[in-house]
Amino acid sequence: MSARFTAIAEIDCARSAQLRGDDRQPLPDEVLCSPEPLVLRGLVAHWPLVRAGRQSARAADAYLRRFYRDATVLASHRPPGSDGRIFYNDDLSGLNFHSQMVRFDQVLDALAAHLDAPAPPTLYVGSTTIDTCLPGLRAENDLNLGARDPLASLWIGNRTRVPAHYDLPDNLACVAAGRRRFTLFPPEQLKNLYVGPLDFTPAGQSVSMVDLHQPDLERYPLFAEALAQARSAELEAGDALFIPSMWWHHVEGLEPFNLLINYWWRQSPAWMDTPYNALLLGLMTMRDLPPAQRAAWREIFRHYVFDSDGSEAAHLPPAARGPLAPLDETGARMLRAQLLNRLNR
């Protein structure tokens, strides 16, 4: 399927002293700040977990169990013979999978029991903090990201499909066992992806409603342009993919046992709120204004936010610039308090 898409640019880490993937030196900023996605072949090939995963699914299972300490995870399940797509039900009144908290070793047991099944149930665990679930695993399997303080998570399951969605943080996704196919769309393809509800989502982020395996171009005609801009790559155990902030990505597990470890971090200070809050306020306060007023507010946002270079308040004395002054943690707390006071009127 991926042959029809443009390939994601690749770097062979075996040929780069800066991309050995161990903790001797941090990964370079030209990778971790790239505006474009990058496949990093062999970045984590030295991990003991990857070596076990390359040996077999059962070897990876045994390696993971060394670190298990009675942790529970949110596991999703679909019945045998389903297509693995983590999505909505037919009328969007609910989801097409069932989720419950279970012990992590029970997930491993279920995956092991169905390794050779021709039509296994869909099993999926996403975005689980490694240090909580498998303490000590990162001591043997980790990356040096320099001054960044990433959130490290694991994702495990069998042949699953997660619809195209975006994440606010930058993302370094490392395949530790099995194979995964990533299909990415640039942020400007939003209008062509036919995004689902903002407030009711399969896993926290809004997703494209189009089935990438069987796109209905009569119902979703603009998706043809998104397909023309799509980029894809298949990753094996040891490979990694850098996904820049806000890039849409569709993720598929291609084996009966797939394990991914990813690192998330933001290029902005921790005290900055998510821009998603501004979107919700924009929907509440601006979307339904008359066209002329929306145009006026578009210009205000362009001037103060999207085209800001610091000069918009240069004509004011520094003490009088208020929210227009350079923002720091104290200023952010003050703005948040003002906003909450206004919303609670």
SSE diagram, text form:
Blueprint: E1 6-7, E2 10-12, H1 29-32, E3 38-41, H2 48-55, H3 57-65, E4 72-78, E5 98-103, H4 104-113, E6 122-129, H5 130-133, H6 137-140, E7 151-157, E8 161-165, E9 170-177, E10 179-185, H7 223-229, E11 231-236, E12 240-243, E13 248-253, E14 258-265, H8 275-285, H9 291-306, H10 329-343
Parallel strand pairs: 1-11, 2-3
Antiparallel strand pairs: 3-12, 4-5, 4-6, 6-7, 7-14, 8-13, 9-12, 9-14, 10-11, 10-13
Helix pairs in contact: 2-3
Domain JmjC: 123-280
Protein name: Cupin-like domain-containing protein
CATH topology of the largest domain: Jelly Rolls
Structural class: alpha+beta
H/E series: EEHEHHEEHEHHEEEEHEEEEHHH
The poorly predicted ranges are none
Kindly provide the radius of gyration, computed on alpha-carbon positions and rounded to a whole number of angstroms.
22 Å
What's the architecture of the largest domain, going by CATH?
Sandwich
Number of helices: 10
Number of domains: 2
Strands of the widest sheet, in order across it, are 2-3-12-9-14-7-6-4-5
CATH class of the largest domain: Mainly Beta
How would you characterize this protein structure?
The structure is a single chain. Strand 2, helix 1 and strand 3 (38-41) form a beta-alpha-beta unit. The protein has a 9-stranded mixed sheet. Strands 1-11-10-13-8 form a 5-stranded mixed sheet, with helices on one face. With 345 residues, the chain is α+β, with helices and mostly antiparallel strands. The protein has helices at 29-32, 48-55, 57-65, 104-113, 130-133, 137-140, 223-229, 275-285, 291-306, 329-343; strands at residues 6-7, 10-12, 38-41, 72-78, 98-103, 122-129, 151-157, 161-165, 170-177, 179-185, 231-236, 240-243, 248-253, 258-265. The mean pLDDT is 94. The chain contains 10 helices and 14 strands. The chain is 26% helix and 23% strand. The protein starts with 5 loop residues before the first strand and ends with a helix. The chain has 2 domains: 2-265, Jelly Rolls; 275-343, no CATH class. This is Cupin-like domain-containing protein.
